[in-house]
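Why do we care about 3D structure at all? Because function follows from shape, and shape follows, mostly, from sequence. That is the central idea of this module. The next example makes it concrete: a single protein chain, its amino acid sequence, and then its structure expressed as tokens.
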Amino acid sequence: MRIRTAIVVGLLTTLSAQAGVVPFNVFLSSNGTGGAPSSYTIPPGKIYIIESFRPFATTPLPSTTQIRVVVRADNIAASAFQTITILDTYTNSQTVWLPKPFRLKAGESLQIPFNAEYSSFRYFGLLLDEEDLYAQNIPVEFDGMDVSEGQLLAEAHFASPRPRITRVETATELDEFVVDDSAVEIAGATRDRATFAVDKGDDDQKFLRVRAVARQ
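And the structure:
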């Protein structure tokens, strides 16, 4: 039996979504190590989405894992420090993923937590233009495909590493795509890559496409 497979990619409706979102890492130091500052302010016209961080501290180590930011209210001129506990335990020099990405707008700041002798702090996230925050569509390209043990496999490369919601659809005819409940998404080595697997079935031909939108 010959299996003919086509990979169909949804078109991007606004090109700015690809160009305006970039991975952006911030290194802070309490003692100027490597010339790093002790705080970082989000530039005008930008939004920073914190996805993970890595704390470094000397003794005494803190009892909890925290991040510290300066946020501004929209209805008053004042700013406020916020120290946010992420974990009830502390592991030094380990990357910690936030349960949900945390956003900072232009003029707000990243800080170093002050509940211990922190020597440095690294924030990992995405820097994007304000107008791109709600640009939903993320274009998808495919690097390869295969058939193995009754499954059709497709390696996907997303134009942005930002958090996303994906929908996998298959069809035996190009005008009959439906959501495929058998689809499984396997995380790749980086957040902009993944492998998708669907049941091949007994069809002589099968078409697969993946649609992705940014998760707000």
